[in-house]
Write a structure and sequence with these properties.
By secondary structure, the protein is α/β, with parallel strands linked by helices. 43% of the residues lie in helices and 15% in strands. It is globular, with a radius of gyration of 20 Å.
């Protein structure tokens, strides 16, 4: 495996619990909730202990254990108002948002909140979130073509005067927005298919990866990184992981075993069927969750696979190995969100920083 070139400090993000049901589809106790008050407290805690980003989830319908959902963009703005340094990433679906409206909102949010607003463009995998809302459902390749146009329109409106765009999904004519953001919102995206990787190489600032082994993440990083380089640009990489940090490795592993043992089987299987259909719809059968097992689907985006389970020292060492493979950001889920965020920030992040310095993983 090729060691990653020394760079900035690794960034840390957490999944915002803005939907009900916690971050695992299990009947295990989760000391978390989706209320605004709780989430403001989590965001302030995360900021204080060293997290850089928070990612709000996008749900419109009950699914995957989330019977209630707060809308992601408005919720993100609330968290930005409650913090001073934390960047907040709002998940958005092309086909449900107009890029022109979102471009105006994003420019305003940047000015209101010190350039801390970002977006995660979700091309869409949950068919019912389109059809039940009376919206067109496109096939996989078309969803990614639409997402590319969506980002191109955002960028054009944020940077150009008299912006005219003639796409298959979006059109503008001689549009000039004022104010344009002094700093464009960062654009994140996920996806494992060939189309998703190519889109990241052409357009996105960040490429989110599902939880994976270090070797699996490195393969995606090398592929997408090469495509970005061929387009004369650089993309940064975020890796999903579910962190269970306890005093002993045995205790941490027992927690994961209990989560899986108490999984809500029907809900996990329903989700698995939905996402497997989405993955099978890709031309190369490489869609997200294409090879996920039941235990992987108990947690958002295959988080257990990343292996962030153990003592603070063990988890920090694993994270640094991820960085060596090219990971720039860890997107983390937790069981008891507020208290686990605080423990991670006070016990793991300082260890990561020390290892980064000791192993020469920071640019001089």
């Amino acid at each position: 495996m090729t060691q990653h070139t020394p760079t900035d400090e690794l960034s840390f993000a957490y999944w915002v619990p803005n939907v009900s049901g916690g971050l695992v589809v299990s009947t295990i106790e989760q000391r978390t909730n989706h209320t605004p008050d709780y989430n403001r407290e989590v965001a302030q805690t995360a900021e204080r202990v060293g997290f850089d980003y928070a990612l709000t989830q996008v749900r419109y319908l009950a699914s995957y254990g989330a019977d209630a959902q707060h809308e992601s963009v408005s919720f993100s703005l609330g968290l930005l108002a409650a913090t001073e340094r934390l960047k907040v990433i709002a998940a958005v679906h092309p086909g449900q948002w107009s890029p022109t409206i979102l471009a105006k909102l994003g420019a305003t949010a940047q000015e209101l909140h010190d350039n801390r607003f970002a977006i995660n463009v979700v091309s869409g995998w949950f068919k019912r979130e389109y059809t039940d809302l009376g919206l067109p459902w496109l096939d996989h390749e078309e969803r990614y073509r639409r997402a590319e146009e969506f980002i191109e329109v955002l960028r054009g409106l944020w940077t150009e005067d008299g912006f005219t765009y003639r796409g298959d999904f979006y059109r503008t004519r001689d549009v000039t927005f004022r104010p344009q953001p002094r700093l464009q919102p960062e654009v994140f995206q996920g996806g494992n298919s060939t189309s998703a990787r190519a889109m990241a190489g052409r357009l996105s600032d960040w490429y989110f990866m599902n939880g994976n082994s270090i070797e699996g993440a490195a393969e995606q990083i090398q592929d997408v990184g090469a495509q970005a380089a061929a387009n004369g640009r650089r993309v940064r990489f975020g890796l999903n992981g579910f962190a269970v940090v306890r005093d002993t490795e045995a205790e941490a592993r027992e927690v994961v075993e209990e989560i899986i043992a108490k999984a809500d089987v029907d809900k996990v299987n329903d989700f698995g069927n939905a996402v497997k259909q989405a993955g099978a719809a890709t031309a190369d059968k490489k869609g997200m969750w294409a090879d996920s097992e039941f235990k992987d689907l108990v947690q958002y985006n295959d988080g257990f696979r990343t292996g962030l389970i153990g003592t603070p020292d063990q988890v920090a060492e694993r994270i640094v190995e991820c960085k060596k493979a090219g990971v720039d950001l860890l997107l983390l889920g937790f069981l008891h969100v507020r208290e686990d965020v605080e423990r991670f920030g006070t016990e793991v992040i300082p260890r990561v920083r020390e290892l980064e310095r000791r192993e020469g993983l920071l640019a001089s």
